[in-house]
Design brief:
45% helix; five-stranded mixed β-sheet; 11 helices; D-Maltodextrin-Binding Protein, domain 2; 334 residues; alpha/beta; six-stranded mixed β-sheet; 2 domains
């Protein structure tokens, strides 16, 4: 009798477990199907409003809201070299309602430069897709006696450490651009970190530093006015805003190719179905001609990832590359 009752209880338990499993199987597709529902999607930007990153987020957010028939808002959380924003997103619910504008280079340098972080830079983030990539322009003060990129290499080799270049801080894209140039060309440059690229450009014009590896839109007015000399752009082809400036390959340094890539990520453990939905919707926005043109005017070029998995692999590869660049530069993680 006891055995019969026990058998019946086990049968009921097995039935309940199978029913629960079936409910979960149905629930996850339903979650992606119903997403985002009536709750807003927040895109957290790790910089202040008005900059290039903010422009990317707001350009995508406006059209994403239209396409998804949802509220998409941009939230600026600057500070800590993106750590403040990243920590906030890492700890957010993994439900697709909190996203982060994430830079491959910056996220990689944060991981390489810090022994301890309040989050895991790999496991606590679910990459969705890259959005844009932008090259750098190599600029010098006109007082530097060089007119080509090859001449800069020769001058730097003849005067080791005398070329001082500015950036927006240690581990920043501009800093990594300079360190990569030094590594590729076998030159020794002196890095001068600033709190922002704009202040570095002011000192470059004033002659306090001699060079920069900068995003084109920042020094553009000074290049056009003749206050700075552009030697090369690090893209595969010339830029419409700087048509007379050769690529690094055309300038005789073909191994120096450099681009900063910025995309979107969600908190780790976000369901794959939601990541796929977001990937599809963001890629759809990036394919719009007016979006491509808006970015191109700022020397940004649409470059979506094939899938969330592809973007994740790209970020992992970049983390290893940046870690090596920082190690070669003799920078010790703090």
């Amino acid at each position: 009798m006891q055995q019969t009752v026990l058998s019946r209880l086990l049968a009921v338990s097995r039935h309940a477990l199978w029913a629960a499993a079936a409910t979960l199987t149905v629930a996850f597709p339903a979650l992606a199907e119903d997403y985002p529902g009536d709750r807003p999607i927040r895109i957290v930007v790790p910089y202040t409003a008005g900059g290039s990153s903010d422009f990317i987020a707001r350009t995508v957010a406006a059209r994403l809201a239209d396409n998804m028939k949802a509220s998409v808002v941009v939230e600026n959380r600057p500070g800590g070299n993106t750590v403040i924003a990243a920590d906030h997103v890492a700890k957010a619910a993994p439900d697709g309602h909190t996203l982060m504008l994430i830079g491959e280079l910056t996220h990689s340098s944060v991981a390489a430069l810090n022994k301890q972080l309040p989050f895991d830079p790999v496991e606590d983030f679910a990459p969705i897709t890259n959005a844009i990539e932008s090259p750098l322009v190599v600029v010098v003060n006109p007082e530097v006696p060089v007119k080509t990129l090859q001449e800069l290499v020769s001058y730097a080799k003849a005067h080791p450490g005398e070329i001082r270049y500015g950036s927006a801080g240690i581990g920043n894209t501009l800093h990594l651009g300079g360190e990569t140039f030094a590594s590729v060309t076998g030159t020794q440059l002196t890095h001068v970190p600033y709190k922002g690229a704009s202040q570095a450009v002011v000192d470059l014009v004033g002659g306090q530093i001699q060079a920069m590896f900068d995003l084109p839109q920042t020094p553009l007015p000074h290049i056009q006015a003749g206050r700075l000399r552009a030697l090369a752009v690090t893209s595969a082809s010339r830029l419409a805003m700087l048509p007379d400036v050769p690529t690094s390959a055309e300038a005789g340094v073909p191994d120096y190719r450099f681009a900063t890539r910025v995309g979107f990520a969600a908190p780790g453990k976000t369901p794959p179905a939601i990541l796929e939905r977001l990937h599809a919707e963001i890629v759809k926005v990036l394919a719009q001609p007016e979006v491509k043109e808006a970015f191109a005017q700022r020397a940004m070029f649409v470059a979506p990832s094939d899938s969330p998995a592809a973007f994740r692999q790209s970020m992992l590869t970049e983390m290893q590359r940046v870690k090596q660049v920082i190690r070669d530069a003799g920078i010790e993680p703090q």
